[in-house]
Amino acid sequence: MSEIRNLSPEYLWRNFDDLTQVPRPSGHMEKVQAFLLDFAKKVGVEAFVDAAGNVVMRKPATPGYENRKGVILQAHMDMVPQKSPDSNHNFETDPIVTHITDGWVYANNTTLGADDGIGVAAIMGIMEDKTLKHGPIEGLITRDEENGMFGANDLPAGELNGDILLNLDSENWGKFAIGSAGGIDITSSLEYKEEENDQETAVKVTLKGFRGGHSGLEIHEGRGNANKEMVRLVRKAMAELGVRLAAWQGGNMRNAIPFKAEVVLALANDKVAALKEMVEAQRQMLESEFKTIESNIEFFVEEVEKPAALVPTEIQDNVINAIYAVHNGVLRMIPVYPNVVETSSNLAIIDIDANKTNIKILARSAREDMKEYLATQIKSCFDLAGMKTEFSGSYVGWDPNPDSEILNLLKKIYKDQTGEDVIVQVDHAGLECSIILGKYPHLDVVSLGPTIRSPHTATERFKIDTAEPFWKLVVKTLEEIPVK
Questions:
Q1: Is 78 a catalytic residue?
Q2: Which sequence spans correspond to the domains of the chain?
Q3: Which fold has domain 183-395?
Q4: To pair with 350 at 20 to 30 A between CA atoms, which of 93, 162, 165, 473?
Q5: Which residues form the signal peptide (predicted)?
Q6: pTM
């Protein structure tokens, strides 16, 4: 039995532990949908999968609370499938294995799935606990939030009955989000006729060990992007050693800062030693540049079987120049909130072989005009390389409402329970609230949650001592929801 089942509150931890046993990487929701429906049947609440693939649960009001405003508790069922390089974990079949270290819950060399499994577990606990007092409650557990917010985007209008939405997908206890950034997926691609490899040998260059992280919440921390740092080496090696590009694989999720990139390069035999020296020099340079931020950088060369084909010379030069030039990281902070990122991009995935290039970027902004500006800037860069760029999955930001009734209630209860004032903020992460508000504009919305660190990485962790106050706050808030 997992040791986290012994933690308090029991309803939250037991359900989270059960959830870790159900594979649920983004794009593979069938098992977790069935699990949630089975859970609802066992605890005696209404539940169904809607046309968008979301699971909706409904629990009637406690007797005497029927006149309270309806509350929608919302979280997402999928998790980001990231693992350490030496892990053999299969996210489509294997359960998450957890352990406790120094007051935090971790997984064994994979993402933990507390983002947003803790939110889902809280909804399950509320649905299950018969001792609670509350008005009518709906649980909205959306599908595929992490790779396109498909569940929120396809949420049917008229399906939900509530007046208040509590999004349980924030990751800093003591901070409530009342606004978030919008985002857009950018994909640039190019197909071409491969060129015969006339070089003498080939090597694979690997750059790994960066911390990675959430491309919204942690983009301002200056963490290394493996794709951006690899292109510095590749361009230099092309210019000085005449190497040729055969392949590039870097990153695997749009919303995760890439911690690893690999390239296959073809070159003359007498240039291999010089390339190895160049890679070592770049490694030392990166250690200096990222001192105090990154501590496990590895940069090395291995000889591999010579590939039959290469990226054509002109295409190679244009693509590498575009990758070098394209924006990555923070573009601008919010002028009236100078400590909050307004606009950023993440050079997330590069997939190149001898006859095609595919590059995926996620751009975010709290302003629609700046989101459009950055997306167009990125497209313009790849246009110069002759690449085709497509935009998809665009969603608007969530405009804050500092006068929100539910916000003021949460602030009061938080102060009563902790003796401290809560921090109200706008997140650079993309939350589903803005999309849901587009379909249910009457909703009064706040996002909250316990403390999670390094989501979207294999060091994702959950701070145990924030679980109980989070649970107590949600329970007490449901009890004190105002009448209609």
A1: yes
A2: 10-180+398-480, 183-395
A3: Alpha-Beta Plaits (3.30.70)
A4: 93
A5: none
A6: 0.82
